[in-house]
Amino acid sequence: MATLIACPACNASVSNAAPTCPKCGHPFVQSGFTHGLNPRHTGQVVTIEKTGKGLKLAGVLGALVLIVSVVMVIVGLQEGSKDFPAIWIVLGVLSLIWLLIVRVLTWWKHG
Ligand SMILES: [Zn+2]
Question: Residues 69-75: contacts with CB within 8 Å, 24+ apart?
Fold first, then answer.
């Protein structure tokens, strides 16, 4: 149901179903309208995570290895080959651990 709220930028009456103010174009966050009275100010930019380039690279590398090993395991399962590529399962688990370490290190750096 739509309720009329006051635009925080120009104070015009706006339906809370509108994504932006029709008068001034001020953007609204839909989730902020639970009580339809005090719309959250949306001008603030979310703080960008500052992760070290090395950690980012390690994370991307780990994700790539994980994807490749998962694909290889799926392919191996579909082919039903007798010599199942167990190495890919090991590699997948290792990359998961690797990603976990990267996550912990990222968290550690951020405090
Ligand atoms: Zn407005």
Answer: 69/95
CA 48–ligand 1 middle distance (angstroms):
27
Q: What residues have a C-beta under 5 A from ligand 1, the ion?
A: 7, 9-10, 12, 21, 23-24, 26
Each residue's pLDDT, cut to its tens digit, for the chain (111 residues) gives 678 888 888 999 988 788 889 899 888 775 444 444 444 554 444 445 556 778 888 888 889 999 998 888 888 888 776 666 778 888 889 999 999 998 898 888 776
55 Cβ contact list (under 8 Å, min separation 6): 102, 105, 106, 109
